[in-house]
């Protein structure tokens, strides 16, 4: 089931939170939904699920709005706020209450409890759950209807390393089954290991709709690390359009040329090269470069007792 956001806009008074946002999430892929705090990710997800009404534009799941589906839990499962559970209910009764709304059998409740590792504590009241246990319950609720589309806001929040590996494996298995998976996260390293595609927004506007590999490859943080005793001479032979930096007399960091280009120039002028290594950016660095102009909450560097920024 394809997710489509078409010209989505959301305003609160004179403040625009989501601004003419258009993107598509296809089945069989995990799409990471990224952006700085305040970028409009949660508001966008709420509009996809019909919890917020767009000021303009349209959000559809499988060609129609979430509310238009006769059995929405079987079409799209979502985790937006794991703590949105009555604290006096047990995990089992919370899931059974959801199941009753759609005629979902008890066997499915038992299945998602086992899938999320909650079987042994299914009879405990939710108010005693840790953050990670609550997160697992939220994921179980999202999967209760065996949905074709899964939308999760910060799914690894509060999970221990075993839990992070579990959710990564689960999401990949859902995508392999042909489901549509959209996840938001602030953990770039985890997103790099999990997502196939990325939708990046800043201040409510689309900044990128691409693959993880392409975003990292085109990042300005990527460069070629060159070590040569003839660094000054090589510098003079490289095109003026290159961005050059150096952290040692025999080292150049070259942006704007490939390692092959640099190697050909060096070979043509008989310059020895001791190292010629492409250095790709991490997803975190690529994300920071892309969104640096859209960060709303800028922290200042901490100051030490000597008055110098750390």
List keywords for this structure.
11 helices, 310 residues, 13 strands, 4-stranded antiparallel beta sheet, 6-stranded mixed beta sheet, alpha/beta
Shape: elongated
Spatial strand arrangement across the major sheet: 5-6-7-3-8-9
Number of helices: 11
Main structural class: alpha/beta
Please bin the fraction of helical residues.
25-40%
Q: Identify low-pLDDT runs.
A: none
Largest sheet: 6 strands, mixed
The first-to-last residue Cα distance is 49 Å
Whole-number mean pLDDT: 91
User: How many strands in all?
Assistant: 13
Share of residues in strands:
15-25%
Q: From the alpha carbons, calculate the radius of gyration and give it in angstroms.
A: 24 Å
The H-and-E topology, N to C, reads as EEEHEHEHHHEHEHEEHEHEEHEH
Word description of this protein:
The protein has eleven helices and 13 strands. The chain is of the alpha/beta class. The mean pLDDT is 91.
Short précis:
It contains eleven helices and 13 strands. The protein is α/β, with parallel strands linked by helices and 310 residues long.
What does the secondary structure layout of this molecule look like, with pairings?
Blueprint: E1 3-12, E2 15-25, E3 30-34, H1 41-48, E4 56-61, H2 72-75, E5 76-79, H3 91-102, H4 106-115, H5 131-143, E6 149-153, H6 161-176, E7 180-184, H7 188-194, E8 197-202, E9 205-211, H8 212-217, E10 223-227, H9 231-237, E11 243-245, E12 251-255, H10 259-268, E13 275-279, H11 283-291
Parallel strand pairs: 3-7, 3-8, 5-6, 6-7
Antiparallel strand pairs: 1-2, 1-4, 8-9, 10-12, 10-13, 11-12
Helix pairs in contact: 3-4, 4-5
